[in-house]
Design goal:
six-stranded antiparallel β-barrel, Thrombin, subunit H, about 25% strand, seven-stranded antiparallel beta sheet, alpha+beta, Serine Threonine Protein Phosphatase 5, Tetratricopeptide repeat, elongated
Amino acid sequence: MKLLLSVFLVLLSFSAQAYNQQALMEAYFGVVMIRGYNEDGGMAYGSGVVIADHTVVTNCHVLRATKQPWVSRGEESYPITTVRADVWHDLCVVTSPTLPFKPVPRGNSYALLRGQEITAIGHSNGVPAPITSIGEIQGLYSMPSGNMIRSSAKFLMGASGSGLFDMEGRLVGINTFKTAGYGGSIHFALPVEWLETLEKMPASTEFPVRGKALWEEDEDKKPYYMRAAVPESRKDWTNLEKISMLWTQQETANADAWFSLGLAEQSLKQFDAAASAYQKAVSLDAQFVEAWFRRGEVAQRLGDSKTVKDIESELQKIDPLLVSVYQNYLNCEKDCQKQ
């Protein structure tokens, strides 16, 4: 089975929106490291984003292992004096009175769209200079006061607490947790809107920061989009099917739930069931490009040339450039109906 990610990389090469290079450069310089020694004398580290004068947001789990954290950039270090902690949401805002860096502008997770291009900037693997990873929005999940963001912009250990930016350099999310597996990691970012409440919380001087985050909750208590991510990344299609069936029963109008079910059934070679699930997904979200591509792939498997062709018309409405990408995806040359 072809990896759909490669299709969207092709799509990006045709129709990627223009970067605001200056704004993205400023965002790059708004990302810093959070460091500190743990109890064993080793170095604990993560990433952070400058969100106000002398103020950095990071993940609270970055601050679990050290009593005296600091902000660093290159060989320069800046002591952290206080923290405002929302442990359950895994967001901590720290104050560093001597920090000289300019804050980044903020965006809006509600304004994001599935398929929109974004970039993650963070200190993956603890490298001194931030690493940039371009990807796209794969899912948006409604939470109180913001959208949890699933993206294909990769981040590795050391980039917890780093920034997810739109292509205008605006901070839209905080990269926080990911799943790992044979199918590749699935990356999640917390909505930028959560900072508004956090900044109003009382400051503390107590380190380390302790407590469980929402993504560390017992598996059966997590929201379905988190529960589905683990078997998807591990290519455990049987368990993904079970979870997705429950998801569609509980959230019948959720296009992501039906897409997840379709992905599981397609991978289990249950093509009629997969076609039905994907069709439900696109009926709920006509802009769900990945679901249209998968629906076409399954239709081709079933010899349903009419549906294969009809999907071209639907993609034409979204973006005419998608049609040729879709045809390439299905190994078509000029007209998918001729297959």
